[in-house]
Amino acid sequence: MTDYREWAPPASLTGAVVCLWHRTETGTSAPALVLPDGCVDLIWESGRGAFVAGPDTGPMPGTTGPAKTLLGVRLRPAAGGPVLGLPLDELCNQRVDLSELSPVAARRLDGALPPGEALRRLLAVTGEFAEERPPDPALLTAVRLLHDPRARVHELGARLDIGDRQLRRRFAAAVGYGPKMLHRVLRFRRFLTLLESPGGLGELAVRAGYADQAHLSRETAQLAGLPPAALARRWGRGI
After folding, report:
1. What's the domain count of the chain?
2. Dihedral pair phi/psi, residue 82, rounded to 5°
3. Which of 70, 108, 132, 162 has its CA 20 to 30 A from that of 236?
């Protein structure tokens, strides 16, 4: 059985953090389906300590064992690279122990901590990282623009007054991949959100920003490893 919850971060972290989350496995359950969201997570796991879940470009299996507790800080798209202090393309589709990135911070987040203390320290470490290396405002603006279903990736550099090559380099460092990939991921997440509203798959595909249902099918196969109807069922809606 899985208990998963999300809640808002403290006001001091909202510029860099999407949410905080808690996951507990109390017994045998189906592996979690971790799907791309453009974010990077700093995670504490009981018995293990802290690690970083890098930006994903496809489905990743959850690896939590039974009787484990995970606490996470989900960093906003484009905030992860600056806050963690390294180019995120080095962490794409990877899970890396925090000791490899910041041994001092990792020692503060020992796996033997009680969950309440682990959360307090996780927030403290994140706050210190974000204060020392805040996100790039231009890239946060770029992410906000890409959330619009009508956004055109090829127009992004001109709107930000940043050359295309420089924009791709800055995206790779801050997000983990280029603006075109993030645009695909954000559109995919819009579709997942729309699954909570009425409508057939073709209608939801167009509302999310896809050309048609065939376009949606190609994208869900790559980003989720499932066709749209199977993904909808896995996500909690029968279609």
Report:
1. 2
2. -60, -45
3. 70
As a whole number of angstroms, the distance between CA 16 and CA 13 comes to 6
Measure the CA–CA gap between 79 and 62, rounded to whole angstroms.
23
Which three-class secondary structure state does DSSP give residue 205?
A: helix
How many angstroms separate the CA atoms of 157 and 154, rounded?
A: 7
Summarize pLDDT for 31-58 with one digit per residue, the tens.
Answer: 677 999 999 999 999 999 999 999 999 9
- Structure tokens of 27? 């017994």
The residues, ordered by sequence, that sit 6+ positions from 230 with a Cβ below 8 Å of its Cβ are: none
Amino acid at 178: G
Give how far the C-alpha of residue 60 lies from the chain's centroid of Cα atoms, to the nearest Å. Answer: 12
What is the H or E stretch that residue 195 is in? none
Residues 103 and 179 placed together within one structural domain of the fold: no
Beta strands in 35-173 (DSSP E): 40-45, 49-53, 60-61, 68-75, 95-97
Dihedral of CA 115/117/118/120: which sign?
A: positive
Strands lying side by side in the sheet with 2-7: 2-7, 17-25, 68-75, 40-45, 49-53, 95-97
Q: Same domain for 76 and 150?
A: no
Dist CA 167 CA 173 (whole Å) = 10
Q: What is the pLDDT of residues 95-121, one digit of tens each?
A: 999 999 999 999 999 999 999 999 999
Are the CB atoms for 145 and 159 separated by under 8 Å? yes
One-letter amino acid for residue 60 of the chain: M
Domain-embedded: residue 101:
yes
- For residues 213 and 231, what is the distance between their CA atoms, to the nearest angstrom? 14
Tokens of 105: 């911070």
Q: Which of 74, 85, 54, 81 is nearest to 13 (CA)?
A: 74
